[in-house]
Amino acid sequence: MDGKYWSNNYSASKAGVVGLTRSLALELGKYNVSVNAVAPGLIDTPLTQKIKKEALEKLIQAQPSKTMGKPEDVANAVSFLCSGKTNFITGQIIYVDGGKSIGAGI
């Protein structure tokens, strides 16, 4: 692969997280346990700072917001899920990705 496409193992691992989240939500709901997952997108971290500038700019331009997320954006989503205000939310994947998951920029 030339880096243009997601690798099979990466895609399979993400699908596994989605399946596990939903399955656990079904199994644990009777115990009043909520199970959700947070799926971050392009977040400004030391890892993304290692991406070549030209490639990073293409990724940013593919974002609906034309920006990268911040670690605080992910932390805020996690904090919300842990807040007790989400008692009726379970089995969900919360995308913190600036809209990228809806197919924008593809």
CATH C-level label: Alpha Beta
Structural class: mainly alpha
Run of helices and strands: HEHHE
How much of the sequence lies in strands comes to 5-15%
Question: What is the general shape?
Answer: elongated
Number of strands: 2
Q: List the quaternary state of the chains.
A: single chain
Overall tally of structural domains: 1
Describe what this molecule looks like in 3D.
There is one protein chain. The protein has 106 residues and is mainly alpha-helical. It has one domain: Rossmann fold (3-Layer(aba) Sandwich), CATH 3.40.50.720. It has 3 helices and 2 strands. The protein has helices at 8-28, 53-61, 71-81; strands at residues 37-40, 93-96. The chain has a two-stranded parallel sheet. It is elongated, with a radius of gyration of 16 Å.
What's the SSE blueprint?
Blueprint: H1 8-28, E1 37-40, H2 53-61, H3 71-81, E2 93-96
Parallel strand pairs: 1-2
